[in-house]
Amino acid sequence: MTRPPIAMLAELTHRCPLACPYCSNPLDLVRGAAEMGTEDWARIFREAAGLGVLQLHLSGGEPAARRDLVDLVAAARAAGLYTNLITSGIGLTAARLKALDAAGLDHVQLSLQGTDAAMADAIGGLEGAFARKLEVARQIGEIGFPLTLNAVLHRRNLHQLPRAIEMALELGARRLEVATVQFHGWALRNRDALMPTREQAREAGRIVAEARARLRGRLVIDYVPADYHGDYPKRCMGGWGSTGLNVAPDGTVLPCHAAQTIPGLEFWSAREVPLARIWAENPAFNAYRGTEWMAEPCRSCERKTKDFGGCRCQAMALAGDAGATDPTCVKSPLHADLAARAGAHAAADAAFVFRPAPGRVAV
Amino acid sequence: MIGPGEVPRLPRGVRVQPDRVRGGWVLLAPERAVTLDAVGQAILAEVDGSRSFGEICARLAAAFGAPEAQIAEDAGGFLSALRERLFLEVSP
Question: In which pathway does it act (chain A) (predicted)?
Fold first, then answer.
C-alpha cells in the first residue's frame, strides 16, 4: 500500500491583491468562476484526514480573498486537521482574525516581500500593502496565533535579510522561513530580474548560520538556499508523491504546485475521484514516486533517497526531461552550463513581469 | 536541561493527538508533524501546564517502576529537544 501523505496544500483561489513576480501559481491561472465551493472543499478536507493528512496549508493566491475562509477553517478543524493559513495579510481585518481564532485556526504564515514599504510594495505591486501587513501582524500577535514569517529573497532584496530576522523577533514570530526564490511559475519567467549573485547566495548562508546560533531557542529559522548556486538539489516535496499533495482552486490534484509544467501527465480532479484513489492510483503520482523511475547518474547515486534526484519540474524546465537529474546537482552533465547561466541571469538587467489577476489578460 | 521546579507546557499551536490512520500519537506544531513513540507519548501525557518537571519524573518513575534519576535524564533530554524547536515552553 502507498504510504499516506502528511501534508496537503489547498490553493483555495488564485485571486490575489498582490502581483509578486515570483508567484508560485501557474502561468495559466484558474479563474474565480472555476473555484470550488465551500462544500467541495470541506468534503476534500475530510477525505484528506481519512487518507492520513495531518497538516493542512490554506493558501492561494490569497486565501483571505475567499469569503468563506472562516467556514473552511472550521471544516478543516472538524476533520481533525492542523490548520495553517499562508497569507500576505491583505484582506484580513481584526474582526476576521477573531472569527478565524474562534474557528480554531492553529497557525499563521505571513509573507514578507521586503522589510520596508518601498521594497515590499514594489515587489507586491500594491501601494500600502506593507503598512497593512504590519497592522495585521500586530493583530495576529494580539490574538496570540503562533506566527511564521516567510521572507522570499532574491537579488533585489537579499540585502534586507538581517532586517527580516530583526522583524521576525520584533513581531514575536516563532519561525522564520528564509526562502531564496525558487525558479518555477512566474519566477522562471523573471529569472533575469530575480537571480541572486553567487556572492549574495553565499552571504545569505553565512547570515542564516550566524542567526541560528545566536537565536537558538528563541527563533527557528528554516532556510531554502539558492539551488542554482549550490552543489546538490533540494529534496523537492520530500520526494514526489511521498509526503504531500496540492489541490488547485478547481479541484485538480497535483503532486506539487508546478507539476502541470510537465507534459504528458494527466491530473485527476477531487471533484470526481476520491482523494485516496488519486493518491494511490493516478499515474501522474506514480510517475516519479520512489526511485524506480531514475536513470543514471541518479540510479546508482548514494544520495538517491536523500534528495530523490531533486525537483522533477526543474529537470523539465532546465533539461527538457522530467526524468533527468535536476541540473542543480553537480552530478548532472548540465551542471557546469547551469552555473554559468546562473551567473548570466544574475548579471542581466531586466524589469519585472508581474503576474496579473486571474481573469485579466496575461502579460 | 530543565530544573525540577520548572513547569513545562505546550504553547499555543502545539498539540498531541492520536494518528488515526497510522496508529500511535503525533505532535502537531507549526508546519511540523512529529511521530511520538510510546515513551514520548507517555512523557507528554504528563505535561499539563501545572505539574513541575520533578513531579512529572516522579509520576513516570512510579508508573514505569524505573529509577527517578534515569527518568529525569531521558525525559529531560526529550523535553529539552522539543524546547529548542520551540514546541515546548518552560516557566520557572
Answer: Cofactor biosynthesis; pyrroloquinoline quinone biosynthesis
